[in-house]
Amino acid sequence: MSTKVVAILAVVLVAVAGAGAAVVLLGNSNDGDKLVDASGTEVVAYADATSITAASPSLVDLVCYMESPTLLKCVAKSSSNPAMPTGLPQCGKYSDPDTDAISNANSDITLLDASGSKAAAACKTLRDAGMKNVYLFYGSDDGVDGVYKNVEMIGKILGKDTLASEIITKMKDEIANLNSKTANATTRNVIVTTGWGSLAADSSGAFTNLDSVDLKSGVYAAGKDSTLMGLMKSACKVDTVPAGSSWAALDSDMISTQTGSVDAIIILWYTTAPTATECAKFVTKLQNDVAWQNCKAVQDGNVFFFTGSLNSNLSRTTPYTIEDLAICSLFVNPECFSATSGGAALSLSDLPKTVYDSQKEGLTGYTNNSPASA
Q: CA 238 → CA 36, 195, 359, 365, distances in Å?
C-alpha cells in the first residue's frame, strides 16, 4: 500500500446522514467479508442518492462507466468524460480538492481520490464542517487490484453490485485474452509519458514552440510499479526504465544513460494531435539532442502520440483503461498481431505515429488477428 494511502488511513471520517437517508459510513471494520474504502471505513449501499460530487477525473469516469452520469453535480478540473452533464461546477484538482466548492455542491455523496496529495486534509476539513458521505478510494498507486476495488465500491454505493461484478469480470477476461495472445512475445522496453513538458501544438496540429522547448524538462513517465504499467504488464510483455509507483520526472542523467534499450516511446498527448510531418520534426530534434541521442526508440523513430480518449483513458486508471490495453499491446508486441487474419506479422514501422480516436476501432481490430507465423 502506498505511503499516501497509509497517511489517509489515519483520518477518521464522520458522516452525517441526510433526512431519510441510510447511514453510509459505519465505522472501521476488520471483518474480511465487509467492503471498506481506503480509510478502512465500511462501504454500504446508497441507492437512493440523487447527487454525487466526484473530486477526481478518474472517479467521474467511474461514475459514468457505472451508468450514472446524470447523478454528477460537481466534478474535478480536467474531467472530460463525454457522458457527464455539461456546465457542471468544479471542485479543484484531484490532488487539491476545493472544500468550499464541495460544500457548496452539498451532494448526497462526495467521492475523493486517495492518491491526491491533499485528499486527507480535505477529508478532515469536510469532516470538521459536518459534511456527509465523504468516501476515500484507493488511489492510482494501489495497483491493478485497486482498479477492481474502485469498481466494486462504486457498485456498492450505487446499489449496482451486479453491474460492478459484470464489469470486473469483463476487465479480467480482456486482460487474460491479451496476455494469452502475447504469451510468447519478446519483452519490450517502453516509456509512457504524459505530454512532453511545455511542448504545445496549435489547432492545425503544428507544434508552436518546438524550436525553443526543453526536451528534458517537465517530462513525466509511468514508473515500473505504477498502476498503468502494472495493467500493461498484465496484458503484454513490457518493461520500462523509470522507477517508482507513480509518474516520475525524467532527468538528463537517466535519459542519457538508461534509455539505450528503450524500444518505443508512447506520449499521451492532451492537445490537438500533431501531424505526421510535425511528429517527424519532433523525432529529428530528439535525435540531435545530446541526452536523447542514445535512446534506441529515438534513433529508430519509434515515438508515438496517443491522443483523444486514449490519452485520458491511459493517464487515469479505470475500466476505460482496460478497454484500451489492446492498443497498448499492439504497440508493445506488434509481432503478435496482423492487419488481417493469418496475414503477415506487424512491426512498429507498420503503425501510425499519431493515434486518433477514429483509428482506435481499426487498430483494436488488428489485435483480433493472429499472424500466419503464430
A: 32, 20, 23, 21
